[in-house]
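Hi R.,

Quick one: here's the WD40-repeat-containing domain protein sequence you asked about.
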Amino acid sequence: MPYTSGQSGSSTDLTASGHSGASSPSHSPSSSAHHPQTDGTGTPRKELYSYHAPWPVYSIAWSRRPGKDAFRLAVGSFTETATNKLQIVRLAGPDSEDPRRQQDLVATAEANHPYPATKVLWQPYRGGDGPDLLATTADTLRLWQARPTEDGASESLHFLQALNSTKTDISAPLTSFDWCETDPSLIVTSSVDTTCTVWNVETRQAKTQLIAHDREVFDVAFISGTSDIFASVGADGSVRMFDLRSLDHSSIIYETPTTDSHSAPPLLRLAANKVDTNYLACFHQDSAAVQILDVRVPGTPVAQLRGHGAGVNTVDWSPESSGHLCTGGDDSQVLVWDIRQRESHPGTSSMGRAKSAPVGLGSVRDPSLAYTAAGEVNQAVWSAAQSEWIAIAFGRCVQALKA
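And here's the predicted structure, written out as tokens:
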């Protein structure tokens, strides 16, 4: 696995044990009678899996279902046509694997998608063996269902419904959304028309809509552990927090500094810490830095991550550790950070599972681990069902990296 330590440059894997210099296991079909890609327990055997799509990739998301279906990804295309694609890809099995072994992951379902999906997510797992629900945003919010085929050898992807809060067929484009972990019936979307809308996916109706920013809203995220509080970022350069129980006001957590000659640069993406509800991560347009915010101390970032050599495109927190997050950018780098420490120990992985909070760190310039992709990284998402895996998207490629 081509990871390097953020300080020493030594080769390392991304395992929690922190052993450096680990080599990737060889891919021998005869080593597992159960599945050529997994060991006898169904656990993926390799440390890096790749999928080469027939079109440029933008949106990706891990399945939330635990067990054998955890190693699945929803993948959305990005083409300059009205009709795009939405696929489900998973580990190649004995029957579906590329006979030339050029694909570790294969598409098991595909559907047409109007316009490129700005985001795709699987519904948080609620237990049971029923079909999986997915959602996408583009010109509107769409719901999809993934279910096994009758013979059980593959799966199918079915469009369910487009949700629209307006009385006309035309709505403002949606930039992003988040699916509430605490109450999976709720989705919140962000739009270029300055609004955020909270949806009930069971009734297929809008629960509430509010003007969130002075300009376009670019991203939105529920705060972990609650179904009432969410945060958003937008073109006005602010991070705002809303409480559905009291929508008559919002809290401004952070505003981009401005000068007399320049307006505030937009904030493009937002990620809420999945373990500690006090922390958010965001970044500006065309910026190589990531801001870490403490909602208890609004106004100034408690840390800034400055390891990228070009603009950041994506950020996601670890599902198990409050101090770890990953970022990806135009410098083709995927960086894993431990923001509880100013410096990483040379030659070791710092992917421990401690849950202490990142307090008062200032600038963090050295990531704990780094991976160089073959192109500009558009997305990096951490699996909630398999917390040792991070998926990235660049060009026409999706890769799953062992964490």
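The radius of gyration is 21 Å.

Cheers,
M.
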